Amino acid sequence: xxxILRSDWWFASTxxxxxxxxxxxxxxxxxxxxxxxxxxxxxxxxxxxxPEFDGVPFADPRWCYWINVCSLICGLVGNLFLMFxxxxxxxxxxxxxxxxxxxxxxTTMLIAITACMQIYAPPxxxxxxxTQGFWYGIAAAVFxxxxxxLLMVNMLGYFLGxxxxxxxxxxxxxxxxxxxxxxxxxxxxxxxxxSKIESDLGEEGWGFVDAMYFCDVTILTVGFGDLYPTTDLxxxxxxxxxxxxxxxxxxxxxxxxxxxxxxxxxxIVQKHIERxxxxxxxxxxxxxxxxxxxxxxxxxxxxxRTLDNRTRPNISAPTQPRAMHTAMGNEVRRISSxxxxxxxxNPLKNARRPPILLLREEKDRFDAMRNIQHKSQKFKRWxxxxxxxxxFGILWCVGAIFFxxxxxxxxxxxYFQALYFCYISLLTIGYGDLSPKSNAGRTFFVIWSLIAVxxxxxxxxxxxxxxxxxxxxxSDELADFTVLPKDGAWRTFLEKHPxxxxxxxxxxxxxxxxxxxxxxxxxxxxxxxxxxxxxELINDEDPEEQLDLQITLSPNLPILAEEAExxxxxxxxxxxSLSRRLALSIKRVAADLHHVKPKRYEYEEWVEFTRLxxxxxxxxxxxxxxxxxxxxxxxxxxxSPLMSGLSEAEWLLNRLCESLVRLERKKEYFAQVGGTKRAxxxxxxxxxxxxxxxxxxxxxxxxxxxxxxx
Length: 710
Fold this sequence. Notes:
Keywords: Ion channel, Ion transport, Membrane, Transmembrane, Transmembrane helix, Transport
Number of strands: 9
Strand content: under 5%
CATH class of the domain at 10-168: Mainly Alpha
Shape: elongated
Transmembrane segments: 65-86, 98-121, 133-156, 176-194, 238-257, 382-406, 412-431, 443-461
Number of helices: 21
Distance between the termini: 30 Å
Subcellular location: Membrane
Largest sheet: 3 strands, antiparallel
Region (Disordered): 674-710
CATH topology of the domain at 10-168: Butyryl-CoA Dehydrogenase, subunit A, domain 3
Order of helices and strands: HEEEEHHEHHHHEHHEEEHHHHHHHHHHHH
Helix content: 55-70%
CATH architecture of the domain at 10-168: Up-down Bundle
Structural class: mainly alpha
Radius of gyration: 36 Å
InterPro entries: 2pore_dom_K_chnl (IPR003280), K_chnl_dom (IPR013099)
């Protein structure tokens, strides 16, 4: 049975494996810190109490040490099986249960150690206390338990049939896992190296946990200054170590940001687009009959509808939805949502309507789809900002609660001071006036900062796409009119406000007319090219080429409607004209591929492009000369090019190149048969030859069968 990935389980299928692969190495590092550090220390020395960082640790019971070793082994082996699962070296059904079991065993052992230590060998208060190793052991137990529970949710989704038995991760997501492992190896390895150097050569010996804290504040560029290198060797080692750590952290933040955008785009933004598109489809009407029917159906709901819903404009729907041609050559008749809900007959359904009316109807739907795209882009950017602000607020306020409780006894920290400390840490300011002074506070800071600082970086990036972008836009517009005047700035401003532009143009025209009358000239301007007939604007030397250039580069609805009338009557462009139009279109679209911002074409341009694609088809079986409209899709439908996932220039370039190939095949066929005989059994639209005459032979290919539609 084929397994279908349901959108409701997207986080379980993709987000949970990545989260487990990220937290797994962190759990291993904290478990190592819990193993190499004694869990208790003496803080009452020579008749006086000393700070926790100056305490003297003493050995733990042997059973505590060896159970801790077993816990670390289970955690490392479980993480190894998870990596084998990601690389598909071991089957999902084997690797994932082993990982879950081993991590549950590691969690159980750590919880047992902490409980037994508190029951059978607790520190003697207030002369003794727990070290950072004890708190790292608790953190490791929490991480192992959290990862195991998350992976169980992933297995539940597999057993329920929501996704297959493998992690469907992209290359960028696998790279994120590798980068995370490298970062934690770099952090733990740096802690071991600096601990060895400072213990042997430094003024004050550093334990592994102290050195790892130093590496953390160095890589995150916080730099409180409570720990710093005291030897030339460690100072020299800071140069390459800090650069490597900062680069690795930047790569991780970039990968996380890209991953979050992918998840949001695929599962949140696309759902928003689909909901908006369905609501737009529900508002479509095909004629005044549909509109009156809808008003009667919804009359009893008027009191319940909001003003926004009542004033929302209706959108034109195709009165006779066209067939959608599939890649296999099958013909599927599309049915709009209004066809299902409004069974009333339409007396205008079978009437042939003018192309200009069809173009305007389709433009209505095209503009609606453009509006959906514009709103979806804004929704995506602001949604990302909302999530980033929420994550920042939680890490800031909740983190301050932990620091407040951990540092209350050590340095009398209040909650406001904890908020201040978290804020300067999140922004990597690091004044140094406040820093962790307790074992619990320093342990929590290492774990909290590894999550909070990258979150702050992502928040800054999201603000750059929204708030900063809008501020920059407003400041640039203000500068264009004030300190840095820009040519055409007032014209652009007036184009954004058509009512003001129309009023100014009308006032200027009336004033110019009064001046011409005063000078004795006629009201009409004889030098205005808009007053000339359209035929006089065309170059007499090669009118066909000038027309091709005009239609390709600056099409408008009247010209397109006129061309559509010619197509219906059988007067189509010559082969030379089609070749010229296709070449100009391909050249233009190819140039648009290099734009930094993806090019979005106007409706009139789309009509001309799709007309070139339709008119060069070779497969006569999939064409219906009597169907209305100039496109083969619904702009708001699922088959719309605007919903393809490709950029518009890329989509068009592929189709135009295919059309050019089909046209060249036609030319070859006409050359072979001499343009004198007509192949039987075909119904393609007639295309004129190079002399402007209709060739007598039309067929779908050299063998008369056609090559199918791409």
